[in-house]
Amino acid sequence: MSYANGSPHRPPPPDTDLEAGPPTARSGDFDDGDVSDPFDITRTKNASIERLRRWRQAALVLNASRRFRYTLDLKKQEEKTQILRKIRAHAQAIRAAYLFKAAGDGQVIETTKPPAASAGEFPIGQEQLASVSREHDTVALQQYGGVAGISNLLKTNLEKGIHGDDADLLKRRNAFGSNDYPRKKGRSFWMFMWDACKDLTLIILMVAAAASLALGIKSEGIEEGWYDGGSIAFAVILVIVVTAISDYKQSLQFRNLNEEKRNIHLEVIRGGRRIEISIYEIVGGDVIPLNIGNQVPADGILITGHSLAIDESSMTGESKIVHKDSKDPFLMSGCKVADGSGTMLVTGVGVNTEWGLLMASISEDTGEETPLQVRLNGVATFIGIVGLSVAVVVLIVLLARFFSGHTRDASGNVQFKAGKTKVGDAIDGAIKIVTVAVTIVVVAVPEGLPLAVTLTLAYSMRKMMADKALVRRLSACETMGSATTICSDKTGTLTMNQMTVVEAYAGGKKNDPPGNKSELSPKLHSLLIEGVAQNTNGSVYVPEGGNDVEVSGSPTEKAILHWGLEIGMNFDSTRSESSIIHVFPFNSEKKRGGVAVQTADSEVHIHWKGAAEIVLACCTRYIDANDQLVDMDEEKMVFFRKAIEDMAAESLRCVAIAYRTFEKENVPATEEERAHWSLPEDNLVLLAIVGLKDPCRPRVKDSVELCQKSGVKVKMVTGDNVKTAKAIAVECGILSSPAEATEPIIIEGKTFRAMTDAQRDEIAEAISVMGRSSPNDKLLLVQALRRKGHVVAVTGDGTNDAPALHEADIGLAMGIQGTEVAKESSDIIILDDNFASVVKVVRWGRSVYANIQKFIQFQLTVNVAALVINVVAAVSSGDVPLNAVQLLWVNLIMDTLGALALATEPPTDHLMDRPPVGRREPLITNIMWRNLLIQAMYQVSVLLVLNFRGRSILGLTHDKYDHAIKVKNTLIFNAFVLSQIFNEFNARKPDEFNIFSGVTKNYLFMGIVGLTVVLQIIIIEFLGKFTSTVRLNWKQWLISVIIGFISWPLAVVGKLIPVPDTPINNVFSRFRGRRKEPEASQ
Question: For 554, left (φ over 0), alpha (ψ -120 to 50), or beta?
């Protein structure tokens, strides 16, 4: 039997709160990237391995191990697949061998009870338990006395669970192990150091430093000769150490976040009550309730199950749903509950399970890339090619000038004379030239640019945890900044998820107050209590004192159980008075769930509960105030429908409770027949209709308004009826007024479902509210919106929401109500189920993009200025004002420290004043081009003037020539570095005049700027021997500061210059397109 398209035996999760539906096949990806451009991947979520490999091959990379560290490790991914395949094969081989042996043994299977090896406090040992569950050994299970026998050996009560006190838990951990597996050790700091050393340019510089050191010591002696080579070596080591520290800190953040992702929370039964614990706290002998969408947290044996079906594909590799019952009661850790519900007894935990062995083998994260990372690799490759070309030109020009005798030393003497200059001096001069050229490559190839994405994502992910959002996929963090539409659930996301029964109709009339027991006739009261207690997935725990009754279950279940307690229900005794024959868990296609029970006097009652208007339509009678069965005439039907409409208009969720009797002889006799029995749902007797109030979350209206203002359309997709949905939508601000609620702005799920793809595409953008929808409708809406070019974020909590979460650009699962299946299909988990947290994620997504743009503007300004200054000086005079050590210091400011300062700016409200960032918008906007060109032209102009006229401007014409040149070059270097420090403030606010807004709150930024200034002073004043600089007097320091300071007023003036709306990239693209057209026509 197939369960793929929502058969009546495949109900969605009981805890989805009437907001689920049948899954459907996922449509093809809308990958709108340009296939010809390897760096144009707008969506890495489902990108092919071949596509990911292409951009890696196209990138210009100096240090592959560092550049690709936080991208998907294609080799490790392949290894992971191989390990998974081997372990699955191993699991299947064990079972096949056992089945073969059992078939061969035939009738001679021993029925004597096997010896139970003692595990200290327990009569059965870990090995015996593991062999039974791992090998699915039903014969051994029967020899132990079935699940009841195993529970006795484990000292577990099948109904109340284990005692669960500290001493009991410690004994069980000692005997059966803990539910954890050994993690592979994370990379040490020295591994990051080694990775940083693999940079090709740094290796060349180290070789050059070693050669320079040897030649220097040989020609000048050890006291003076080691400075040139030693200073380059020290600068390279400093770059390596700072880079390694930055990378190591990032890795620790990712490791902590990965650990958080693995830490699943679930319910167990201990001491007769349901408590929530971490998956790592499960022990052998625990009793665990299972519902659709849950992950089986350990190996175990089924105690009781109702239509329980398990998806074992994670272990067997076969996407086959396996039904579990007394004939096949074994449950494997790591599998998912695809259908039904039940309880299990834990027999194996941690590495004593196949899943534990698997996770221990593949626990290392293989990483992933984000679209922004890929695009930045493209930008870095382009800039790197330009920089490499410039470096080659500089190298050729300097070598040509040197060996042709046009290069002079600090004293004005010609450095190379053919036939006269010593070989050692000639090699030393050539090494210095190569060093400068290689250093230009270090500055020009922005290795730190793609890594800045990882830095800002690591920072954002850590901060988003505080804002109640756990990021599962890095790419979602930045994609959220491009979101144009959010399709949100109602219950628990826009509302509080704290339901209470505030209105009730029973006995053919309204009960006021709803919990007034005296208004209910005896028979009606008895049937209502039976229906509430038995037709539920929740539970009631009454402590010994009788105070503080604990009710568990979904919010709808809890509200109805609380109402049952108000009208006098004793949960445990009511459930013990009748026995459950079959359960039909809540089905979001039918919007109802039912249970068949046998009473003490052998009658069979079938109870139904679900969406009020749907259950009411199945009712033909009702019980009146005198306990009489009365036919449902037209007048009474109109009365009940009006009651439902009135409650819905007050934004109440309406649930009807009904029942019918059934002939005992018609009930299927065997467990297998009952598993496929469709409970009769006609000729029902209406018992009650209740209205549940779930208040809107505080300030949700402000959050919705903020989204609408920032260009993000909020759509509400709910399983509640259209009138309830309309009332909530008006309350939340999704609809401005009830008058706006006309089709297609508000639409019913079945209407949308019945349309063709073309019709859905036409109205998808106009829809604001969809009522009585199934998850299938949510998926269809997501597909239609994506076809229209929208970037769609979707919230979901149920198992059947998984296809929509997977299809959406950003899937947002609910952390409290969400099932494990929904969470695994999602990209971000909203830990508090609150819509306000979704809006915070949007802000963070935009912040990621904005921070990267700030860093790009800052880095490109440094790149352009440094390259132009050195190239012009090299070509014109054969000397460069910025030497290798100075350029390495600039590179450190620009790459690592600059990224730390700018990529960790917290989000501001200003980000929500802009429309969403288009995924195809250029990374470097016209505003950024304007800002960086103005700053770069200013720096280049001033520093080149100083380079060529510095001696006269600074009044150094009377000083010694070599000292004057050193002072001039030191001032150029100092002014250049201070210009970058001042410009770092400009980069914080590319399009705002107040560049100091919020700067004092960003301690990291202030700390890095302060550290850079202090280090610059130390370099100039105390490390002259290393950096080839001299001390500057206060006037020269003042000139340097003034040159840097002018960048602030210059930035203000620059921002007054208007820029065209059309991106400059598009202009060039059109120009190229026009040039190609005539060529094609010829």
Answer: beta
Q: Is 600:578 a contact under the CB 8 Å cutoff?
A: yes
Candidates 893, 1071, 857; CA nearest to 973 is 893
Taking the C-alpha atoms of residue 1021 and residue 1058, their distance in angstroms, rounded to an integer, is 42
- Which of 15, 489, 797, 809 is an active site residue? 489
pLDDT digits (tens, 9 = 90+) for 482-500: 899 999 988 878 888 889 9
Backbone torsion region of residue 568, taken as left when φ is above 0, otherwise alpha when ψ lies between -120 and 50, otherwise beta: left
Cβ-Cβ contacts under 8 Å for 1082 (sequence gap 6 or more):
none
Query: Which amino acid appears at position 109 of this protein?
Result: I
Cα distances (Å, whole numbers) of residue 132 to 92, 129, 149: 15, 5, 13
The three-state secondary structure class of 769 is strand
Cβ–Cβ under 8 Å, residues 801 and 817: no
**Summary mean pLDDT of the chain:** 81
Q: Would you call 706 helix, strand, or coil by DSSP?
A: helix
1038-to-586, 660, 1032, 1041, 1042 alpha-carbon distances in Å:
77, 93, 10, 5, 6
CA–CA distance, 61 with 445 (Å, rounded to integer)? 8
CA–CA gap between residue 614 and residue 363 (Å, rounded): 48
What are the pLDDT digits (tens) for 784-839?
999 998 999 999 887 778 888 888 999 999 888 888 888 888 889 998 888 989 99
137 is catalytic: no
E strand or H helix at 592: strand 592-598
DSSP code per residue over 1006-1069: HHHHHHHHHHHHHHHHH-HHHHT-----HHHHHHHHHHHHTHHHHHHHHHTS---SS-HHHHHH
> Helices 1047-1055 & 961-988, crossing angle to 10 degrees?
40
Residues 442, 443, 449, 454: is their CA dihedral positive or negative? positive
User: Measuring CA to CA, which residue among 728, 707, 765, 823 is closest to residue 490?
Assistant: 728
Output the CA–CA distances (angstroms, integers) from residue 534 to 159, 530, 602, 621, in the order listed: 16, 6, 16, 22
Our measurement of the distance from residue 440's CA atom to the centroid of its chain's CA atoms, rounded to an integer in Å, reads 38
Question: Of 631, 620, 601, whose CA–CA distance to 526 is shortest?
Answer: 601
DSSP classification of residue 408 = B
pTM of structure: 0.78
Q: Are 988 and 1047 in contact (CB under 8 A)?
A: no
Tens digit of pLDDT for each residue in 634-689?
A: 999 999 999 999 999 898 999 999 999 999 888 888 877 887 788 898 999 999 99
| Cα distance between residue 708 and residue 915, in whole Å | 10
CA distance 1044 to 861: 13
- Name the phi and psi angles at 127, rounded to 5: -65, -45
